């Protein structure tokens, strides 16, 4: 299984970005897709997840600003990030959970300038 993430970049505070992550390879039934992030000197943290039936969960710090969605036909998960803040600066990693195994993408850098 391979995960390819894209969409990171540099944006000013208050701006928006949309991340995408597509899974390929031995894809069967992806129970959970999600995004995590890691800032310098901090542990990786959960940002948002979405189940195969569309149930979502968000970290308190991004509720109301970020929206996670998925396209099951394309094995793709998206993260729409609005009203970005400098504290959102991090490397964002996508993750899928399939058949009791977690798979991680390579990470995409999001930098929010003040």
Classify the secondary structure makeup into a structural class.
mainly beta
Percent of residues in helices: under 10%
Give me the oligomer status: single chain
Q: For the residues shown, what is the average pLDDT?
A: 96
Shape: globular
**How would you spell out the order of helices and strands?**
EEEEEEEEEEE
Uncertain stretches of 5 or more adjacent residues: none
Q: In angstroms, what separates the terminal alpha carbons?
A: 37 Å
Radius of gyration, CA atoms, in whole angstroms: 13 Å
Question: Number of helical runs?
Answer: 0
Largest sheet: 7 strands, mixed
Give the amount of beta strand, in percent: over 45%
The total of beta strands comes to 11
In short:
This protein is mainly beta. The protein is built from no helices and eleven strands.
Topology readout:
Layout: E1 2-6, E2 9-12, E3 17-24, E4 32-38, E5 45-51, E6 56-58, E7 66-71, E8 76-81, E9 90-98, E10 101-104, E11 108-113
Parallel strand pairs: 2-11
Antiparallel strand pairs: 1-3, 3-8, 4-5, 4-9, 5-6, 7-8, 9-10, 9-11
Would you mind describing this structure in some detail?
0% of the residues lie in helices and 57% in strands. The chain has 114 residues and is mostly beta strands. Strands 2, 4, 5, 6, 9, 10 and 11 form a seven-stranded mixed sheet that branches. Strand 7 and strand 8 form a beta hairpin.
């Amino acid at each position: 299984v391979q995960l390819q993430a894209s969409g990171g970049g540099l944006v000013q505070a208050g701006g928006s970005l949309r991340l995408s992550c597509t899974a390929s390879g031995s894809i069967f039934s992806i129970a959970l897709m999600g995004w995590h992030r890691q800032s310098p000197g901090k542990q990786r943290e959960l940002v948002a997840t979405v189940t195969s039936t569309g149930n979502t969960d968000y970290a308190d710090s991004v509720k109301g600003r970020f929206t996670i969605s998925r396209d099951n036909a394309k094995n793709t998960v998206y993260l729409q990030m609005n009203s970005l803040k400098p504290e959102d600066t991090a490397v964002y990693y996508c993750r899928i959970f399939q058949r009791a195994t977690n798979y991680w993408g390579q990470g995409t850098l999001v930098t929010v300038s003040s």
